Amino acid sequence: MKKVLTNIIGIILLMTLLFIKTPKLDAASASVTVRTNKSTVVVGGTFDVTVTISSSSNLGAWEFSILYDSNKVKLMSGDTHVVGSVQATNVKTQSYTYRFKTISSGTSTISIGALRILDYSENVLNANPGSVKVKAITQAELEASYSKNNNLSSLSVKDYALTPEFNRDTLEYSVKVPSNVEKITIEGAVEDKKASVSGFGEFDVSEGENKFDVVVTAENGSQKTYVVKINVEDENPIETIIDGITYTVVKRGSTLTAPSTFEPTTQMINGIEVPAFKSNITNFVLVGLKTKEGTPNLYIYNENDNSYTLYRELKTEGTLIFPTKAKVVPDNYKKVNITINGEEVEAYEYTAKSNKGFIKKLNAEVKNNGFYLIYGINIETGEEDFYQYDAKLNTLSRYNKNLIDTLTVENKNYLLIIIVLSVETVVMLLILLIAFVRRGKKKRRNKKKDFANFDDFPEKTKVIKIEQKKEETKENKKEDTPDTKKEDKKKSS
C-alpha cells in the first residue's frame, strides 16, 4: 500500500512539474547507468541488472521503462515500468535491481526507455539512457571456452638445483641432497592463473630416492604431472631382495606412520638401529622398506631369519585383521584371489558338492554370492582365525566353523533318518501290495476249486432232480398197468 501511495505521489509530482511548471531547459544533467553482474551466462542461468540514476543536483522525480528481448531472456523480478520520487532533499542517486533468466543462446541487450528525470527544484535533467549486453551460451560452448593451459612457468627445490634445468615441457627432474637432509621444499608457479596446482610445499625425505608429483589442473580439467625425485645420499644402505625386487630399509621415522595399536620403537638390523613400530597384541615389529622409486611401505620384520613380510590391514566395519595364509583349508572350499580396499588378498570360496538339505541352502547363500573365507590375525585382539568376508557390504565377521560343522553333521543325521524312514515306508508298501496280491489270488483259486466239477454246478443239480422225478413217475405208472395188476393177483392167490 505504501509503495502504491508513493508511486501515486510521484506521478502527481511528475505531472505537476512537467505540465504546470514551465521547465528550465538549462538545468544540470543526470546519468543513468545499467550494469550486470555477469557478462556471459549459460542458457537457463540467471543474472542481475542494476539501473542507477544519479545527478550532481538533488533528485526530485523520475520515470523509465526496462527494455529487453523476451525471446532470449525472461524477467524474474522487478517492475518493467518505474515511476519514482523523493520526499526529502539531498538525494542524488537511486538504484533498482532486476533479475533475468536466459532462455535461449545469443546476445541480449537490456536498455532504458521512456526516460524522464527532474531535480528537486523541478528542473528537467538531461540524461542519456544506458544499456548493457549479456551473452547466453550453451554448456558445451562454455566448456569449450575454458583454458587448456596446464603448464608450470617455474619449478624448483629450495636451495638445490634441478637436473635438467626447468622447461615447461620437461616432466621429470632429479635433485641430489646430502645424507643429513630431512626436509625439502618444492616451489613453483603456473602459467595460467585459472589453473590449479598440487604438490608444492615442505616434505619429509629419507635416505635413497624420494618421489614427489606436482600436478597442474587446467581450467578445462586437463592435467599435467611433473615428477621431482629427491635422492638423499645413504652412506651405509640396508638392502634386501623380495620377489626379485631390491628394497632399502627406511632410516627416517618421520616418513613412516604407525598403524593403530602400534607404538614407536627401534630395531637393530645389520648392526644399525632403525625406526620401527611394535604391537604388544600381535608382537609384530614393523619397519619401513622402499623401492628404488622411493615408495615406502611397512613390513613385518622377523629377526630370527632376517626376513620381511608386507604388512597389510583389512579394515571393515568393526573388524581389523592382518591377512595371512591358512594352515588348513576348510572342507568344500577352494583358494581364490580377491581385491579388498584395493589390495589383492588370498581367500577361500565355497564349492558346491551337494544339493540336499542344509548344504543346498548353504550353497545358495555362499557360492557366487560375494561370501569368502579369509584367514588372518585380529590386530586388536591378537586372535588368529578364519573370517567370513561379505564383498557386497565390505564387512568381516568371525567364521564359526564348529557351528557349520555341527549343522552339517546334524543335517547328515537328519538326512540318514529320512532315508531310513523312506526305505521302511517303501518296504511296508511292498509288503502290503504283496499281501493284497496274494489274497486276490487265493480267492480266485478257491472259487475255481469250488466250481471245478461240472456236476457240482447248481444247474446240473436241478437237471438231476428233474430226471429223478421223471423216473419215479414212470415207475408209478408202470405199477398201474393191467399186466401188473394180473401178476399181482397171481402172486396173492
Give a description of the structure:
With 493 residues, the protein is an alpha+beta fold. It folds into four domains: 2-144, Immunoglobulin-like (Sandwich); 152-232, Immunoglobulin-like (Sandwich), CATH 2.60.40; 246-311, no CATH class; 316-399, no CATH class. It is built from six helices and 30 strands. Strands 17, 18, 19, 20, 21, 22 and 23 form a seven-stranded antiparallel β-sheet that branches. A hairpin with a 4-residue loop joins strand 29 and strand 30 (395-398). The longest helix has 50 residues, at 401-450. The protein is flat. The termini are far apart. Mean pLDDT is 82; it is low at 17-26.
Estimated share of beta-strand residues: 35-45%
What is Rg? Answer: 55 Å
The rounded distance between the terminal residues' Cα atoms is 175 Å
Shape: flat
Q: What's the CATH class label of the largest domain?
A: Mainly Beta
Average pLDDT rating: 82
Total of helices: 6
The domain count comes to: 4
User: What is the count of β-strands?
Assistant: 30
- Biggest sheet, in brief? 7 strands, antiparallel
Low-confidence segments:
17-26
Spell out the blueprint of helices and strands.
Layout: H1 2-20, E1 30-36, E2 40-42, E3 46-55, E4 59-67, E5 73-77, E6 81-85, E7 93-102, E8 106-119, E9 131-137, H2 139-144, E10 152-157, E11 172-177, E12 183-190, E13 196-198, E14 201-204, E15 208-217, E16 223-232, E17 239-242, E18 245-249, E19 263-269, E20 272-278, E21 285-290, E22 296-302, E23 307-310, E24 314-316, E25 319-323, E26 333-340, E27 343-350, H3 357-366, E28 371-378, E29 384-390, E30 395-398, H4 401-450, H5 458-479, H6 482-492
Parallel strand pairs: 2-9, 11-16
Antiparallel strand pairs: 1-3, 3-7, 4-6, 4-8, 5-7, 8-9, 10-12, 12-14, 13-15, 15-16, 17-18, 18-21, 19-20, 20-21, 21-22, 22-23, 24-25, 25-28, 26-27, 28-29, 29-30
